[in-house]
Structure prediction request, 125 residues.
Amino acid sequence: VQLQASGGGLVQAGGSLRLSCAPSGHTFRGYTVAWFRQAPGKEREFVAGIRWNSGSTAYEDSVKGRFTISKNNDRNTVALQMNSLKPEDTAVYYCAADRNVILSSMRDSRAYDSWGQGTQVTVSS
Prediction:
């Protein structure tokens, strides 16, 4: 499935941004959808994930309480609401999706076959 990510931008520390991920010509039903990020010189890391059918979610520790991943059944999209942003959140954010992600692999980027194009999030201090 092709994914379209949107919503990145430049924001001051403490501000908010909302990212959105949508599948092209497909539904997210049965998929696990996740957000990953990659900062310059660093490896891609898991940020948050959601299992579409159950709605269960998971977060990387540094974003717990600040970021919220959610699904919109009507719009068939997954959003990542990012509040209280910090300069260390600066990265390219990617959405990823796959139908065959087991729970223990949700945080592993290798478990996902479909990736969006990435959207830049820059948080200034």
